Amino acid sequence: MVRYRKKFWASLLRSLLNDVYLPVSISFLLLLTPFSCVQNVELHLLKGNEKVLVVESEFNNLNTGNYVRLTWLRQVQDKQVLPVDDALIVVSSDSGESDTLEQGYNYDDLFKGYYFSNNLICKPNRTYKLKIDVGGQIYEATATMPRPPKIDSLRLDSIYGSSGKFNSTLPFIYFKEPLEEKNYYMAKVCYDASNEPKNPCEVIFPKGHWGLLLLDDQYLPAYVNGINVNLPSMPKDDFVQNLSGNYLAILYSVTPECFAYYQALLDALKSDGGVYSPSPANHPTNIKSDHKVVGFFHVVSLDSYPFHALSF
Amino acid sequence: MAKLLFVVAIFLSFSICAQKFNVSGKVTDVVSGESLANASFRIAGLETGMQSNGYGYYSLSLMKGIYQIEISYLGYTKKIVRVDLLGNMKLDIQLNPVNQQLREIQIGERDQVDLSNIVLGKASIQMSQVESMGTMTGEADIFQALQYLPGIKAAVEGNTGLSVRGGSFDQTLILLDEAPVYNASHALGFFSVFNTDAIKSVDIYKGTIPAQFGGRLSSVVYLKMKEGNINKLNVSGGLGAIASKLTIEGPIQKEQSSFIVSGRYSYAGNTANLLGKTAQYLHIYPFRNFTENNDIRFYDLNAKINWKQKNGRDQFFLSGYAGKDWFKYYLFQQGTFMKWQNNTVSFRWNHIQKDNLFSNTAAYFSNYGYNYSLLMDRRDFEWKAGLQEVGLKNEWDYFIDHIASLKAGTSLTYTRYSPGSIKPRSDSSLTRPFDLERKHTLQVVVFVGYSKQFTKQLSACLGVRMVTYSLLGEGVAYQYSEDRKTVKDSTHYNGGRVINFRSGVEPRLSMNFTPDSNSVFSFAFNRSRQYAHLLSSSAVGLPTDIWLPSNRIVRPQSANLISLGYKYLFRHYAVSVEGYQKWMYGVIDLIDNANLFVNQYVDSQVRSGKGNARGLETMLEKKTGRVTGWVTYTLSKTDRTIEGVNAGKAYPARYDRRHSLSFVTTFHANKKIALSMDFQYNSGGAASFPIGAYEYMGATFNYYNSRNGYRLPAFHRLDLQAMFTKTRKKWERQFVIGIFNVYDKRNLFSAQVETDTFSQPYTLSRVSAISLYGVMPFFSYGFKF
Fold this sequence. Notes:
Largest sheet of chain B: 22 strands, antiparallel, barrel
Oligomer: heterodimer
CATH architecture of the largest domain in chain B: Beta Barrel
Radius of gyration of chain A: 27 Å
Largest sheet of chain A: 6 strands, mixed
Order of helices and strands of chain A: HHEEEEEEEEEEEEEEEEHEEE
Strand content of chain B: over 45%
Helix content of chain A: 10-25%
Structural class of chain A: alpha+beta
Strand content of chain A: 25-35%
Helix content of chain B: under 10%
CATH class of the largest domain in chain B: Mainly Beta
Shape of chain A: globular
Number of strands of chain B: 51
Distance between the termini of chain A: 64 Å
Shape of chain B: globular
Number of helices of chain A: 3
């Protein structure tokens, strides 16, 4: 039996090696393989002419640059941002305070469309109402500011890329999570620059930082014993930014609607168009109008923790 | 009572007057002893036909006399047996397979199809055909081969998910030796889980679905594992760039019991790492971000034993399948690792009660599970989910006479759905363990099907399937607000209590009219219902998709299908045309931005509505001779109208493709060489594409005005393959070499408009339309002794 087995394997090996087809095929494979890789294909895009208002905003308990930005929807591959000028924006609270936002004019053309709140002091547990009037078209939204979270402490750690390509500082934050109430959190890191306005991150920043960590307390323990908040600045990227200088680790407490909105935005940034991800769609909004609108009226509370990162 | 006795007496007197005898037995392959299901029988002079049942058993009830019975089966030499019927007799039929060497002899013969027994919308594909068709990796794939048949398309190009006649990929029931397989894909759909070396036959029902099958809306793919060569020990195997396999089969007790064990292991990750690293070394641009340590592996193992009693009346089969995948790839969901596995076990007992009464009793267990791990993160959790199904079936075939048969049976199915649990992977994990409640369902099915050849020209098959479905406790039924955004109320049900009960009747009818021996007109009506819904957040289906049983909120899906067909045989060819219209009700789709991840209220993310599918399928086929193959063209349309999705307006399904053309051909040059050429064309599927863009907090996002409102470019591809066979005294070697996508067509795999992080001074939109492959060579090496 053993002899038979030996004979069989020897014969199989001989046949494999001597077979004229095998070397031919391997050379053939090596010759053609470089041509068979992932490639981009040209596609023609749809053109729409819908007038859709885009509302970007953030109102928080720091009150250092609460703002609304208004732009119009543009063609998919247009390079021009279309800011909305001369809009009337009023934000009022359930405690009777009200503020008409002032347009910021001191920025580059590309970053126009910002309106700032200078008089309203936003506080947790209060409900705020946004009213936008653009040439007689009215857009309204209501949101309640959640209770602010509290970062107990912060620990710095570091990461080295597996192939030595990148490395960075990782800030781990520690905070209590009251299990008896439903909470949604968002966390991120931003550069602690002296630029104005800050909210607490720079409001007008050409490249957004989308290294957002979203946390539903459904899975969190009573004490979050250190969680890294320095994530890749774009969800599709695989490397985290190399921190160097003064930064803020920020923990937001957000409403369920806001959580769902940011989840949808992050999913959109991760989407592959629907092959292995959901069919792309417009994101939910809390802004009501008879006219088409996208965006969100964000009313959040936050706590920030400063830290200094040394360059690698 | 007297009246009843009178009727019985009259009935018996007829029976006595019409004294008939049975000739019965089993049809098997003479070489391997494998049973041959649905072999055709024709009795000379009577011009009527019958078929053996799904296990190769037949019974013909005839008057005393001398008959010439012609038995035919595709791929086998026709046999004519002379029977002198004086009493009941047992006659086992052994057919000779037509191998490549003898194929030329068949040139004079016509397609061996018994037109009166044709099942409208049924297609079968032989494993030899599957093996002669090119694939991207050189690994023969049953599901990719099925996509060359009319009305069957890939859910996404290059993938194994099937969209049959406008249905989604979850609307196809996949049965392996009676047991359902819930996720039939390896490596995220690039391979199907079925190893061609272990599979004996595959049938797909897309029109008339026999009454014994149900539970899915669009089609049934019925795969049978080989039983194992009952006459001699065989070893076969193959080596490929992606996977290698080995099969051992043979008798345990000669002519009484046999076994087969077949295994396949894929090292696709190693190949990808090697090629990626080489491409990176050569500075090939698309691989600039290639990251090593990809882990793409899978195995599947099929095993089966069968044992036949000496009296030939009982036969037992025990078969099992186990398959597992490991998946981590740098282009797909960074920082995650997935594992998933399918296991099935089936036990079957075939019993010949009487010569004309055959029973099959089966018990099966099917398990599907997956793990999804979040790596390199303090949350460091593992998400685990799956389902288990246990079923019992009892089916009876009653061969009434040589023109009529009855099939009836019952089944009981219990399914346990485990939608998900999260557990920390380490002590330092920040994740709190969490479990979603399990769901339990029980289905009881009774079915009956009756086939009869009424006249020489007209035959019909009538079936009905009655299903009761219960969603059982322990569980919670939620009531939602009208927009389903908030939970209004909930009711807790204790274990065993019925949370939701449904029942339905599914009539099935098919009729064949054969005006002459060359042509047949067919009509079919089919109603089907589907009680389990796959909530998939992708077009191709991911291992992490969620099966949701029907409940108070999500009702069962149902479909009525009408189809008309015509088939004509001339010389060595068969030409067929089939038209169909399908109305679907309760079909589901997800709302925009649906959240399926460990969501207790997952039914709130789904909406139900109507669907419509219609099409015309044509096929020209040649199954005999040196050149074999087929050409098909399909014209089809499918759409959905669902309240809460696309503003309630009708929208095309993603796999809606207007035109499909395929061409499959094999040229058997001589005993040693077979050359194949396959071509496929599909007009572009539908996708959601933006009509505008906007900037939000420094990133660019898209604005859509409809779901699937954009048409992707057409897909087409030509593959060539050469198969060299060398036969020596005791063993045979087979070497396959081919080119996939010969003319380097960059077919689209995914397309989207995304934020371009490299644009200045702020982000812009960028069209990302990815083609996975260009021209690609493949090879594999097989042996058999």
